[in-house]
Design goal:
Layout: E1 3-8, H1 16-31, E2 35-40, H2 46-57, H3 63-70, H4 72-87, E3 92-95, E4 102-104, E5 113-116, H5 119-126, E6 130-134, E7 137-139, E8 145-147, H6 153-164, E9 168-173, E10 178-179, E11 191-192, E12 194-196, H7 197-205, H8 213-222, E13 226-230, E14 238-241, H9 245-248, E15 261-270, H10 275-285, E16 293-295, E17 302-310, H11 314-328, E18 332-337, H12 341-352, H13 364-368, E19 372-376, H14 383-394, H15 401-422
Parallel strand pairs: 1-2, 1-9, 2-6, 3-6, 9-13, 12-14
Antiparallel strand pairs: 4-5, 7-8, 10-11, 13-14, 15-17, 15-18, 16-17, 18-19
Helix pairs in contact: 1-4, 6-8, 7-8, 10-11
This protein binds aspartic acid and magnesium ion.
Aspartic acid binds near residues 42, 47 and 136.
Amino acid sequence: MALIVQKYGGTSVGSIERIHRVADRVEQAVKEGNRVVVVLSAMSGETDRLLKLAHEVAALPDERELDMLLSTGERVTISLLAMELRGRGVDARSFTGRQVGIITDSAHTKARITRVAAERILDALERGVVPVVAGFQGINEHSDVTTLGRGGSDLTAVALAGALKADRCVIFTDVDGVYTTDPNIVPTARRIDKIAYEEMLEMASLGAKVLQSRSVEFAAKYNVPLEVNSSFKEGKGTLVKREDADMEAVAVSGITGDRNQAKITLVGVPDKPGIAARLLGPVAKANILVDMIIQNVSHESLTDFSFTIPRVDVNKAMPIIQDTAKDIGAKSVSVTLTGCHPLTARAARSTADGSEVDSAAASEEHCRRAPRVRFDLRARRRAAARRRALRAAAAGARHLGRVHQDLDRRAAQRRLARRRGRGHHVGPDRPDRVPQGGG
Ligand code: ASP
Ligand code: MG
């Protein structure tokens, strides 16, 4: 008798009809004599819908309230599935993150699990009950609801599997495994039978949406045997496990792309040691994950400094970045919403053909095609317009051109007037005006 954690993603519980099919699978696993713990996502699109509502109320919604709101999506699916299972005579009970003791830190919207107090689940299993657990949520030490970052139900499942020492953690999703690249872009992509945690982590953090990267990290740390499988068709999926001999022989396992990143560029940064730490420290403190960091060759002791953050964090990050940017004497800050699709597709295609790709990154030229927002550091009075632009940018709007052009033009006029009036000038030709920040 095995202990299995089954996690079903949003599309797998996207309608009542699909919830019936999930119940079929759960019932079957129980009938085969297994002890089953079910973890569910919200219905597909639901978390996005809730997020959109929040952003209609506030440009920068309070994160504690946001978590309270976002955690409701999973309550809907767990209670519906538990009802359905009970109707079939399977003794099932739904539980929120709090009820099953998913304890996290207080980093709202991307909380880290600090402890799993799984007594309640163990107790349910003991009594032959199938626990149906809300993914993606926990509570902090003040009993406030937290969420684990987008795709966080995977993490709930893996964490529970780890805590319960489950024999298997199966992630049921709308694809039948992990592919060498996005099969929607490259039809010749192949399914991978087994992949090492490290490689899976690499792929997940670079944009393969099949598993949340933090869940893979967690699985690797606690050696949780993971399986990615389709909830729609029978058959083999992908095993994610410790590396073995035949995995080592593979040169390139897969190619991924991520369209949900924003690239922030600081133009004209004094090229001094410690600048990166000064700039990124406050960003990290605000719990914003910085992914890639690129610093250009400097010209006349000024350089451009770019880094990427999740698109959804642009609103939160900009005021922080602009403050530091001003402190360290950067000339301007720009945000590019990366649209890395063409490049990824090209790289991916060559892998699918069997040729090797050593490394690939989005080029400047390529990102220029993506919408661009520019901000002048000293234009404080355009706060409202800036907020509007940021909100649109965060929502991924493609028609930002005019707002920004206007912003840019007016900013430029004002900047010019100010410079003329006061002889105020910031730039490489007046290096004495650049504040001497070291860090
Ligand atoms: N419902 C959450 C999301 O959409 C969590 C999950 O699906 O894993 O991100
Ligand atoms: Mg997911």
